[in-house]
Design a protein that fits this description.
The chain has 470 residues and is of the alpha+beta class. 53% of the residues lie in helices and 9% in strands. Strand 1 (86-90) and strand 2 (93-97) form a beta hairpin.
């Protein structure tokens, strides 16, 4: 019986394959052991924090697959089931939801949590590394230079822009006046917001609203031409800072302008849409807002000035209450670069903190009847009685939104301008509003309203006249 003799080359080939296989397996095991060893402390501290059961490898990631409305519903479900802080895993990344004001104050002010979470990397191709998404070192350098320049003096120069673009908006809305026709506010307010931010950030008039109103817009441009020639915009400020020796590259300037445009356009537009819809749902509150406007302007058509806006204190309460109910920034994320202690737990190094404002804003511990629209939540007395971090629509701490004053001013101009001309009505009820999340939080079904001509008398005069007639 003969035997088959193995060829020496075949034997060598098998040996090389075996060696490669063993090296691969050994490397993989070594990597896994090292990875596990490095994460030992993280996993130990994570085990102390409650949260939903996680699957191997994927963690809880499958729970967040779905359309934007479903994702929002699942997040709310987790929040109802687990009191914050609680954890979940997406792959090997640990996320911890934090929403108690005392914990928020620690997280938002700690130098070990200044780094933004990994999700912000998805925005880099769109917004670059402006203040919104920049790594800590770049953020520190740029914020020191930009923040002092973003002052009330600059805001005052923007008021004529706010007036002009809102005048165009009012002219576009006139076609709905007294028609009984319902329309979506977003389709109109978003254009005004885009016009405003492009003009104030870059000095460029994109004419987003002017397709239908070219003659009217041209007349306004002619009237206000004198201010536009000398308007100093955000881009001018950055260029001046660069010339004065600030460490800005052209890419840095581009990123900061884009950040302002994205952060200052849709956020304000969405808040205005939510606010006007809520005022349509609550005519008694709309009357109070108008009465405040009337106390400043009477029944005149004089343009709004900066000093007028400071007097609109009840309107500011209304806008803040709108942001409490519907914070357009759905979440803030921070990376923990070193262990920190919050009230009940230690947050491990390399975990990610998720801060959903709605979870704090809708908590009955901080707001009575939290799902109801009540601007009295923001009287000076109510604010003083609550923890400072029970309202975080603009985030908080060192990396809070530097554009919050700009946003509030621009929204006050729009709301006051619109309510001087129109009364807002809607058939929408609070329970009808369904939310979805993309980059921002918005209404699934839009913002349907009707407009009727404003009776310019204050509400007590109108009401007494109605009683006498009856």
């Amino acid at each position: 019986m003969s035997t088959v003799e193995k060829h020496p080359q075949e034997s060598t080939s098998l040996t090389v394959s075996n060696i490669i296989f063993y090296v691969f397996v050994t490397t993989l095991v070594a990597y896994a052991v090292n990875f596990k060893r490095k994460r030992q402390r993280l996993e130990y501290l994570a085990s102390k924090i409650p949260g939903p059961p996680a699957l191997p490898i994927v963690g809880n990631g499958l729970a967040f697959i779905g359309n934007p409305e479903d994702v929002m519903g699942k997040i709310e479900m987790f929040m109802e089931k687990y009191e914050a802080p609680f954890k979940f895993w997406v792959g090997h990344e640990l996320y911890i939801i934090v929403s108690k004001p005392e914990d928020l104050q620690i997280v938002l002010n700690n130098t070990k949590t200044l780094e933004k979470g990994p999700a912000y990397k998805f925005f880099l191709n769109t917004v670059g590394t402006g203040l919104f998404s920049a790594p800590v070192e770049k953020w520190r350098r740029n914020r020191k230079v930009i923040t002092p320049a973003f002052n009330m003096n600059l805001m005052t120069h923007f008021i004529p822009v706010f007036r002009e673009k809102n005048a165009i908006l009012m002219n576009r809305l006139k076609k709905f006046e007294n028609t009984g026709k319902t329309f979506d506010l977003w389709e109109y307010i978003s254009g005004a917001a885009l016009d405003i931010i492009c003009q104030t950030a870059m000095g460029y008039n994109v004419r987003a609203q002017e397709e239908e109103e070219s003659e009217f817009a041209a007349a306004l441009t002619k009237i206000d031409g004198q201010y536009s020639k000398k308007l100093k915009v955000f881009l001018d400020i950055l260029l001046e800072l660069k010339d004065a020796g600030a460490h800005f590259t052209d890419a840095d300037i581009r990123d900061e302008v884009i950040t302002m445009m994205i952060g200052g356009s849709e956020t304000s537009a969405l808040t205005n849409c939510f606010c006007l819809t809520l005022l349509g749902m609550h005519p008694e509150i709309q009357d109070k807002v108008y009465d405040e406007i009337y106390s400043i302007f009477g029944d005149s058509d004089r343009p709004v000035e900066m000093e007028d806006l400071a007097k609109l204190t009840y309107m500011e309460q209304v806008l803040k209450e709108t942001l409490r109910l519907f914070p357009v920034g759905p979440v803030f994320l921070r990376k923990v670069t070193e262990e920190i202690q919050i009230a009940s737990y230690t947050l491990p190094k390399d975990c990610n903190v998720i801060i959903p404002p709605v979870n704090t804003h809708h908590n009955e511990k901080y707001y009575k009847n939290p799902k109801q629209f009540n601007p009295d939540n923001f009287t000076p007395e109510a604010i003083a009685a609550r923890h400072k971090y029970s309202f975080i629509a603009f985030s908080g701490g060192a990396r809070g939104c530097i554009g919050s004053k700009y946003a509030m001013l621009s929204m006050k101009v729009l709301i006051s301008t619109l309510l001087r001309k129109f009364e807002v009505q809607t058939d929408v009820k609070m329970e009808d509003i369904k939310l979805k999340v993309d980059l921002l939080m918005r209404s699934v079904h839009g913002y349907p309203v009707r407009l009727v001509t404003r009776d310019r008398r204050p509400s007590h005069v109108r009401n007494s006249a109605t009683v006498q007639v009856n």
